[in-house]
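Chapter review: from sequence to fold.
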Amino acid sequence: MKAIFHLMIKALVMPFYKNHAGLLVFVFFIMFGVVESTQIIFYHQSLILGMLTSGIFLLIVLVLWLLYQLKSLHFLLKTCSEDSYLFLHHLAELPSIRSFFCFFTVSFLTFLPVFFYTIAIYVVGIQNEFFESMAIVFVFQFALWLMSAWVLNHLLRNQHIKARINLPSLTLPYQRTQLGIYAGYLFKEEKSAIILSKLFSLTLIYIIKETLESGDDFRIIGITWLFALLSHTFLINKLKSFEDQTLSWTRSLPISNIKTFTTYFFLYAMLMIPELVLLTGSVGQGLSFLQLLLLPVFSSAFLITIHSYLFKPNRDPDKFVTYLFWLFMICFMLVLSKMIWLVAASLLVISFLLIRKRFYVYEPTDD
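The token string follows.
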């Protein structure tokens, strides 16, 4: 069993952390890097006490943990289905309880960053005798690991049986334009990734929407929308990979920079339609009609700016997280300063200039 655990760690756990290193470093920096060192203990104590005493806050944290575990499960399922990892299917020869325990261990190891922080939650909870909230945390996390292990083990042992439930096809009926090709790829080939990102963003926006009252500041929605956009940034990398592998020949066509930029603009605006529809009921409660129309413009500006960065010649992939962090922080501060119009317009101009400069000289490379 020791050799099997070692194999699964090298085949599944290590690739998971390598693939998600940027996201984990970004979250770590947000949690610890933006707080002064003298205040960091008090800050996290207050954060944990708020979670243990507020039912809504605890629910938000549980949803975030669920989405993280679903993201981990999605990665493990996709990795196990790749041709180069078919050797993992031999685990089906083990007794069911052993293969289940192997996958349970893998699920726990991919959850380690959250679990380390959970230890601090247990310490604060024991000191303040919040045993009920601690029990909820323990049971919920244990259930997440059981769920992932059961799904992985079940699919491993029933891979020869046709699935009873499949994700519905999201194939678009009209894909003759640039916009249709890009949207068709996302909604057909990356539908599971889109569903995960939508689960996070729609849940976050719904929770904030239900707390809004007439006269509330638009900045609350603006910052929430920015975090919702952040959950979609990994889709840009997927779209760029598809573009490099399949559509690089389109740069030889007589397509203007303006048309290409417009395609990206409407694609990323369309991506946020579900969130926009959800917020329509908040018009008049911290959100005006003009501000509602501004949100898809801001969405396109933020996401196109990230896409335009990926056209940078000879770029260092390790610096992408740094770029994303500073872009997020600049947008966060400007939205907080009531300058969302300015940041949206500025990002659109900057991204258009970058695309015009880099689009036709860009050469795909293996990141």
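Two observations follow directly from the output. The chain has two domains: 2-157, 178-358. The chain is about 75% helix and 0% strand.
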